[in-house]
Amino acid sequence: MASIEDIRTSIINDPRNARFTAEGWKPVFSAPSTAVITIVGQTPSADAQRSGLCWDDRSGDRLREWLGVDRETFYGSGLFALVPMDFYFLGDGEDGHGDTPRPWVAPQWHPQINADLPHVQLTILAGEDAQRYYLHQNTEARETQTVEHFEQYLPEFFPIVHPSGRTNIWRTEHPWFDERVIPALRTRVHGIIDARQ
């Protein structure tokens, strides 16, 4: 079984990532062996790529608010693995929504990373790309229905919408997310963390 550092080196040396490596960019993910919760997002933002920290942006602030954890717990406790569907900032895209994760990245690297995370009890799937990959959904699956019926995927997975500002309108139109899903998410996360500490 490859170590996380071996995996990181392999990602850097993969010819398909040559343009990022040439820029001096490192793959953005965190996978401490002590993690009990994995969060799978989309692609790192420009801010996250610059800092080398997943979720080091406004979306991350909102995500931590939903989880009910502070930055120190999120980054410094060793309880969270942060593994996006692609490890590099791919650009903002013409629509401003960011580029879609490259389809080969997760199948190539996620199983290797997950094999080094023996204590994970919950994987939070933030966004449609993560949900389709981990829940083996076809392209006709609707994120709203997946998130609304999150209980179906417990205890292994917890699907949520991506915590970007673009979801504000969606959340207004679907008040059950704030009323029911976020409290359930927070309860599940803190139950796992409290049992570990």
From TrEMBL:
Q: Which residues form a coiled coil?
A: none
The chain positions of domain Uracil-DNA glycosylase-like read: 29-186
Q: Which InterPro entries match?
A: HI_0220.2 (IPR047124), Uracil-DNA_glycosylase-like (IPR005122), Uracil-DNA_glycosylase-like_sf (IPR036895)
Pfam families attached to this UniProt entry: UDG
PANTHER family found in the cross-reference section: URACIL-DNA GLYCOSYLASE SUPERFAMILY PROTEIN
Question: What name has this protein been given in UniProt?
Answer: Uracil-DNA glycosylase
